[in-house]
Specification:
Number of strands: 18
Number of helices: 8
Largest sheet: 10 strands, antiparallel
Order of helices and strands: EEHHHEHHEEHHEHEEEEEEEEEEEE
Strand content: 15-25%
Distance between the termini: 158 Å
Helix content: 25-40%
Length: about 400
């Protein structure tokens, strides 16, 4: 049986035209074609399997690559944010100006930098002269160090307590004794003070003094005195200068320096009609020096001794009328004038606050008042220096 077929034009045997084929030829041709298609399908499946296997192996690598890229991106973002934040903060920065410590007094720094800016307007110390210092160091630790001194020029507004605190000291007795201050109220701007590096008192050795006796007197150890004064032995000589660490003035000396040895000569309120110093004479108008202060009080007001002492003068004069002069310790004298009468006798010892007479208008006077004068070693001083007006 012959069949005319044109199904495989691409084959070389039938390229020119259709040919006469037998059924066997067609079947054989179809078998070969099916085998070829099946073989191609198997090859394609294997290729796909290989590709899938390859992609399965590349999967973890791609995930790791994505993680790495994401990490790099996040790091770059963080770095950029940090730069922006620092730039923003820097926009608020100002230049730092350091203090020129050459212009700061080194003694103040040696005073442990405490209370550098102090209120010098108020005196802050107790009855023993102790000033209040925050976080004061243990003074005993300083005693083992040799005492050193520096100088300080008093400034406007300074007082004894403010200077004491400024240099880290604890008791005003130290500056009073070291500088031989008779009255702290006379401290003036421009005055130069000698400042020790620790609290204590100067002491001049007297004949017969011993180190043990001095230590016992001031309540300190001999070792402290030796260390502070850099002494190699306990042998002392007359007129040797020592510094006794931690020592302080007794109550009487402290009150004297504070101007508190004197009490008010009147127990009632008064009015100052004429201060100490130059003034126009109330009778003539001529400029004269007034030797005391005039305290106006009612007639007959009791007058009392400003400090304990012995009556050296009781009498009458055209200038002072009935008057009394009292001698006190440390070279002081006080005068009470224009009294209507006095109640003491010459040579009598009178206690501080004891009555000596009554206010009047005797002598060179324009009205009832007490004229009060103070002398120191025979020289007039301003009563305001020893009384708290």
């Amino acid at each position: 049986m012959e069949i005319i077929s044109c199904f495989e034009p691409k084959r070389a045997a039938y390229a020119s035209s259709c040919a006469t084929l037998t059924i066997e030829d067609i079947l054989n041709s179809q078998r070969r074609t099916r085998r070829s298609v099946f073989s191609a399908g198997k090859d394609f499946s294997r290729t796909c399997a290989r590709a899938a296997a390859a992609f399965s192996r590349l999967g973890p690598v791609m995930i790791q690559a994505r993680i790495f890229i994401a990490s790099v991106f996040l790091f770059l973002c963080a770095a950029l944010c940090t730069v922006q934040i620092l730039s923003y903060i820097q926009s608020f920065a100002v230049p730092l100006h350091l203090i020129d410590f050459d212009n700061v007094q080194s003694p103040i720094l040696d005073g442990k930098m405490r209370n550098f800016a102090l209120n010098s307007g108020n005196e802050e110390f107790d009855g023993n002269g102790n000033v209040s210092l925050p976080d004061s160091a243990d003074a005993a630790a300083l005693f083992k160090m040799p005492v050193t001194y520096t100088e300080y020029k008093v400034r406007s507004g300074d007082n004894i307590s403010s200077v004491t605190k400024q240099f880290g000291l604890n008791n005003i007795s130290t500056l009073i004794a070291v500088n031989d201050i008779d009255n702290v109220r006379l401290l003036r701007a421009g005055q130069t003070l000698k400042i020790p590096s620790m609290d204590g008192l100067p002491y001049t050795v007297k004949s017969g003094d011993s180190l043990a006796g001095i230590a016992q007197k001031y309540g300190v150890s001999m070792e402290e005195i030796l260390d502070v004064n850099e002494l190699s032995s306990g042998i002392l000589h007359a007129d040797d200068k020592l510094f006794i660490p931690g020592a302080r003035l007794d109550s009487s000396m402290l009150k004297k320096a504070l101007g508190e040895l004197f009490a008010y000569p009147l127990a009632v309120s008064w009015r100052v009609s004429s201060p100490y110093g130059w003034r126009a004479d109330p009778f003539t108008g001529v400029r004269t020096f007034h030797t005391g202060i005039d305290l106006v009080v009612p007639h007959g007001t009791p007058i009392q001794a400003a400090m304990g002492g012995r009556v050296s003068t009781k009498g009458y004069s055209n200038t002072y009328g009935n008057h009394v002069i009292i001698d006190h310790d440390n070279g002081y004298q006080t005068l009470y004038a224009h009294m209507v009468s006095s109640t003491v006798k010459k040579g009598q010892y009178i206690q501080q606050g004891g009555r000596i007479g009554y206010a009047g208008n005797t002598g060179y006077s324009t009205g009832v008042h007490l004229h009060f004068s103070v002398y120191k070693n025979g020289k007039l001083i301003n009563p305001a220096a020893v009384l708290k007006f």
